[in-house]
Write a structure and sequence with these properties.
This protein has 332 residues and is α/β, with parallel strands linked by helices. The chain contains nine helices and 15 strands. The protein folds into two domains: 4-126, Rossmann fold, CATH 3.40.50.720; 130-282 and 314-331, Dihydrodipicolinate Reductase, domain 2 (2-Layer Sandwich), CATH 3.30.360.10. The chain starts with a strand and ends with a strand.
Length: 332
């Protein structure tokens, strides 16, 4: 079976620890090269991950004719510039979220994709996850009645000022790093764009990144609200409420790869024994994501998370920042 050969831009932690090992377990994907600004770092990463080739520059890897596609886990502000360079080198691109920090750079990314006739996708691995596909199916089927409310929370604790997630100039902070997930999930389930948003954000006095946030989004058929933080106890949960039932996604975003994922469904009962639990086979959503993207390349089919969808997500996030800054509702 033919596999898509991937090169990885940078030895970023998310790639080394999570995504690359998962991609190497794929049926349709294999990582054959990795690059870094340091040849020694690239060599160490290649050795750690069992990758055949390594490069001391991104440009050298993009020039490799044996690479079909690029996985881009660079810092947020470099997602669009280097994804564009990869496309211009004739590579398909799977780019980490958030796709970009403003509309204009993502619009340039879309134009480059079309001009270069390559496949490109935002790496929202949750869209390849069986638990989220099941949740969306249940909403669409009407099992929950009319979808009216989505409630979510996502947090972790990281106060290291050297960590990329805590550097404001490169797109750090809670909203860009993890707020993008509940925004995506709400748009995914309502299958609509929010009409307006309101937000309250608290910024770290030293690092200047948003460290605590609360957001309300108004959709045409319902509402959503969520909280995020980079300086709270790690926790995540999503509740999906309709006129007839409720779904609870227990570990919605960092789905475990060593045990089954579960979602819980009920019709209004508060009795534990009357809540139905659905379990999904142990899987790695990063493996599924890579194979989904590889399949789109091999079969010339659609990708799971388009650049156009990434553009819409970024517009919502920027509206959230504006709502917090101006202390008012922002209409999209």
């Amino acid at each position: 079976m033919k596999k898509i050969r991937y090169g990885v831009l940078s030895s970023a932690k998310i790639g080394i620890q999570k995504v690359i090992p998962a991609m190497q377990r794929g049926l349709l994907s294999e990582v054959t090269a990795i690059s870094s600004r340091s040849l020694e770092k690239a060599r160490q990463a290649a050795r750690q991950c069992g990758i055949e080739k390594f490069y001391g520059s991104y440009e050298a890897m993009l020039a490799d004719p044996d690479i079909d596609a690029v996985y881009n886990p660079l810092p947020n502000h470099l997602h669009c510039p280097w994804s564009i360079k990869a496309m211009e080198a004739g590579k398909h691109v799977l780019c980490e979220k958030p796709l970009g920090l403003n509309s204009s750079e993502i619009e340039a990314l879309i134009r480059t994709r079309d001009r270069c006739s390559v496949k490109a996708a935002e790496a929202f691995m949750i869209k390849s996850s069986p638990q989220w596909q099941a949740a969306r199916s249940k909403v669409r089927s009407g099992e929950l009645g009319e979808l009216r409310m989505i409630q979510g929370f996502f947090s972790y604790h990281n106060i290291d000022p050297q960590n990329i997630r805590n550097i404001a100039e490169v797109g750090g902070g809670a909203m860009w790093d993890i707020g993008c997930y509940p925004v995506t999930v709400c748009r995914y389930l309502f299958e609509d764009e929010p009409r307006r948003v309101a937000a309250l954000l608290e910024f770290d006095p030293v690092m200047q990144t948003d460290r605590l946030g609360s957001v309300i989004m108004e959709f045409g058929s319902g509402q959503a609200h969520f909280g995020v933080s980079t300086q709270l106890v790690p926790y995540q949960r999503v509740n999906i409420l309709g006129s007839k039932g409720r779904l609870e996604v227990v570990i919605p975003f960092n789905a475990p790869n060593d045990r089954p994922c579960i979602i819980r469904q009920d019709s209004g009962t508060l009795i534990e024994e009357e809540i139905t639990t659905y379990s999904f086979d142990t899987m790695d959503q990063y493996t599924l994501q890579a194979d989904d993207f590889s399949r789109a390349i091999l079969e010339n089919g659609p990708v799971k998370s388009t650049l156009e969808d990434g553009l819409k997500n970024t517009r919502v996030i920027r509206a959230i920042f504006a709502a917090a800054r101006e202390n008012c509702w922002i209409t999209l």
